[in-house]
Amino acid sequence: MRAGRAVPRITGYIRRGFWGRKDVKGTNLTELPWRDVRGVRVFDGFLTSAQQADMVTDVRAIVRAAPLIQPVTPRGQPLSVRMTSAGSHGWITDRQGYRYAPAHPSGAAWPPIPESIRAVWAAVAPQARAPESCLVNWYGPAARMGMHVDRDEADPSQPVISISLGDDALFRIGNAARGGTTESLWLRSGDVLMLSGTARLLHHGVDRIAPGTSTLLDAPGRINLTLRVVT
DNA sequence: TAGTGTCT
DNA sequence: CCGG
């Protein structure tokens, strides 16, 4: 992979004090820098190890209620990732197309989005509407995600927030139109990324997983959680 | 057109 | 049947 690494650049700060921390008076608040890659906001090391572990526990509960599926594209090509969802709407990819659906293909309702995950949205995008969908993507060591745009949400003024858990992933950010130059960055366990504003409709994808770079999960691979407002 | 794919 |  010879795509250029993004140079970290501090462009702002948020307050970090969510999640039961003793931050009522602001005494324990810490500033969390983000960096900006083509308008995509990257929060490196957003989650502590303990927060990541709690979140994995919650993800396992989601997967028990709504088992992972290996989707196929409308042309019948299997995706390399396995997917499930939480929330009022779940992402479905099958021969019928791409869409948000109110239930798992089994017919069971999607489980609710756990508080541990919603807390990240509230901290990073406090002005946004509540998230309606949490897509759970399981990347095995060889899984990838082709370049695409998140364009199936009714209100793209609402952000998309991505949480990385487990092994490192090489994430690529492109342009509004397909093609052109791109920038790549490694996402590590506990990192949070937000597509909003001018970056909301940029092409993006995952080129590679680096197995064995995290000890968070039992098996090599990566979990990505993507929070969205759908309606 | 596909493309949340596959290939050089 | 493209280009990153």
UniProtKB/TrEMBL annotation:
<dbReference type="GO" id="GO:0008198">
    <property type="term" value="F:ferrous iron binding"/>
</dbReference>
<protein>
    <submittedName>
        <fullName>Alpha-ketoglutarate-dependent dioxygenase AlkB</fullName>
        <ecNumber>1.14.11.33</ecNumber>
    </submittedName>
</protein>
<feature type="binding site">
    <location>
        <position position="178"/>
    </location>
    <ligand>
        <name>substrate</name>
    </ligand>
</feature>
<keyword id="KW-0479">Metal-binding</keyword>
<dbReference type="InterPro" id="IPR004574">
    <property type="entry name" value="Alkb"/>
</dbReference>
<keyword id="KW-0560">Oxidoreductase</keyword>
<dbReference type="InterPro" id="IPR027450">
    <property type="entry name" value="AlkB-like"/>
</dbReference>
<keyword id="KW-0408">Iron</keyword>
<feature type="domain" description="Fe2OG dioxygenase">
    <location>
        <begin position="130"/>
        <end position="231"/>
    </location>
</feature>
<dbReference type="GO" id="GO:0035515">
    <property type="term" value="F:oxidative RNA demethylase activity"/>
</dbReference>
<feature type="binding site">
    <location>
        <position position="204"/>
    </location>
    <ligand>
        <name>Fe cation</name>
    </ligand>
</feature>
<dbReference type="GO" id="GO:0035516">
    <property type="term" value="F:broad specificity oxidative DNA demethylase activity"/>
</dbReference>
<feature type="binding site">
    <location>
        <begin position="98"/>
        <end position="100"/>
    </location>
    <ligand>
        <name>substrate</name>
    </ligand>
</feature>
<dbReference type="Pfam" id="PF13532">
    <property type="entry name" value="2OG-FeII_Oxy_2"/>
</dbReference>
<feature type="binding site">
    <location>
        <position position="91"/>
    </location>
    <ligand>
        <name>substrate</name>
    </ligand>
</feature>
<feature type="binding site">
    <location>
        <begin position="222"/>
        <end position="228"/>
    </location>
    <ligand>
        <name>2-oxoglutarate</name>
    </ligand>
</feature>
<feature type="binding site">
    <location>
        <position position="148"/>
    </location>
    <ligand>
        <name>Fe cation</name>
    </ligand>
</feature>
<feature type="binding site">
    <location>
        <position position="150"/>
    </location>
    <ligand>
        <name>Fe cation</name>
    </ligand>
</feature>
<keyword id="KW-0223">Dioxygenase</keyword>
<dbReference type="InterPro" id="IPR005123">
    <property type="entry name" value="Oxoglu/Fe-dep_dioxygenase_dom"/>
</dbReference>
<feature type="binding site">
    <location>
        <position position="152"/>
    </location>
    <ligand>
        <name>substrate</name>
    </ligand>
</feature>
<dbReference type="GO" id="GO:0005737">
    <property type="term" value="C:cytoplasm"/>
</dbReference>
<dbReference type="InterPro" id="IPR037151">
    <property type="entry name" value="AlkB-like_sf"/>
</dbReference>
<dbReference type="GO" id="GO:0035513">
    <property type="term" value="P:oxidative RNA demethylation"/>
</dbReference>
<feature type="binding site">
    <location>
        <begin position="137"/>
        <end position="139"/>
    </location>
    <ligand>
        <name>2-oxoglutarate</name>
    </ligand>
</feature>
